Every structure is written in C-alpha cells, then in structure tokens.
Amino acid sequence: MPNNNKTKTSIEVAGRTLKIGNLDKIFYSATGFTKGQMLDYYIRIAPVLLPHLANHPLTMKRYPHGAQGKFFYQKECPSPRPDWVKTIPVWSRGNNRNINFCNAIDLPTLVWAVNLAALELHTSLSVAPAISRPSLLVFDLDPGPPATIIECAQVSLLLKEYFDRHNLQSFPKTSGSKGLQVYLPLNTPVNYDTTKNFARALATRFQQKYPDQIVANMKKILRTGKVFIDWSQNDEHKTTVCVYSLRAREHPTVSTPVTWQEVTQAHKQRNPDLLTFEAAQVLERVSQTGDLFSPVLTLRQKLPAIH
C-alpha cells in the first residue's frame, strides 16, 4: 500500500471531516483520470447511487495502484474506521463468525470508502436486516469472445420477452466491463434457493432453445462465441457490481442503467459504443433522465412458475 500521509487533505462532507489523499494520482493511465476525479464522480453521482448502496452489504474492490494495478476484495469493513461508519453483520459459515460489511448509507461513508481506493463497489442482493432474502434477481450476461456486448443485448431482449409474457418488468444495465445485466425486482418475501433455482432453470431452458447463442454451463471452455447466462450470482454469499459503480478498465467506464430502447437500438445497429458509458457521460445522462434504475428499489413482483 502506498503511503498517503504526505499528501492528505482535510475536507468537510455533510458535517463530517475526512482526510483524503493522493488526489493527483492517475487511476486510468489511458485518459489521465485521477483519484481526485474518481472522488468527484462518486460525490456527484451519490444522490442516485446511495439508495442502491444503503443497507446492502458492501464488498469493496480496492485498487491502491490504480485501475490497471493489483487489487483486492475487502468484505470486512476496514478498521480502524470512523465511528459513524455503520456496518452490517453477516454470518459466514466458512469463517464461523460474522463478517461486518460496510454499510454505505450516506455521502461521508461513500467518500471515506472511495478514498481507500475502493474504485469498484459490489453489493449483495439482500437488504439488511433481511440478509437471507434477496430483494431482486439478476442475470449476468457474459460474452465469450468473439461474442461481444451486442450478443449480450440480443440475449437480454430474449429475457425481456419472457418476462413481458409474464407481466413482469425487467431492467437492463451495462456491467461497465464486457457484458450486460438484467435485473428483475422482487421486493417480496422469497429465499435464495428459490431465486437461484429459478435463474438456473430459466438459463438452462434458454440454452436448450438457443444452443448456438447461449450457454448456462459454468465451464469457460463452452463459452466461445456464446453468451453465458450467469445464474449463479443469485446467492447469499455472492455480490454483483452496483449500478453506477466505476469499473477498472482502460477507461473510466461505469455500470450504467439503460433503457430497453437503447438495448434494441445497439443490437439493431450492432454498435457496442451505444452501450459503453464513461463517468462524465453517466453524470450527463442522470442530469437528463434521473435514475433509470429507481424502480428496482420498490417494485413488488413475484416469480412466475417456469413454463
């Protein structure tokens, strides 16, 4: 870990005093995007980001040497930490103890985490205190080269068609990396066994129906030129990149909510640039459209029987 002590600055954030450091450090070498710009992005996106972080156990993916450097996942909320940083205890069978995840419920906590080089923010599908109950279901669409996000767009539209037939609303977002994700808000009592089994069964059915396009098997060797529907994310002990999180790519791309119209357009034009957004673009989008993902927080739906 680099020594930040020489370059720390005190700032006031919503009544809390924070020490932040290394603001000029370049985090994305291809664009010269600095840690200061990263903090600025997260502060400006916070009004729409924080509702999706609050009360979700947060796993921080930390990049102390920038987006292209070595990283580590941190589940246990770092200590020492300010006494105002809240945590969510989650029982870990493997460790035979609670892991106390950070709970990013407010702007000071978010800035504190990002200052620790938590470039990527990954969240559980549960909302505390109902840790054993997912609030939503996710299909993570991962393209096996030479397939791209355009093939993911095609598969996401097949998923949308299925959910539309069952009068369910689904919401797409880019992963900010290579693929797309489709979220199905539930916000009704359900357990992970149910959501994971449903996701697996539906992914397997799609694999059987579209064997040249889709794979539901976890083996990477089977994914070449196809889209892997990752159903396994629907698990109490797994996390998915949070909407509006930056990603550690060559450019400061963001996991961005998109409209189904945008997905359709990108697929028709076969143009992956229509589904690629960097930090400045996302801030501009939000200023125009607000949070396209806000319904995910409250929309109450129930899983259909698979038929």
TrEMBL record:
Gene3D superfamilies: DNA primase, PRIM domain (3.90.920.10). Residues 34-293 form the DNA ligase D polymerase domain. Pfam families: LigD_Prim-Pol (PF21686). This is Multifunctional non-homologous end joining protein LigD. It comes from Sporomusa acidovorans (strain ATCC 49682 / DSM 3132 / Mol). The lineage of its organism: Bacteria, Bacillati, Bacillota, Negativicutes, Selenomonadales. The gene is ligD_2.
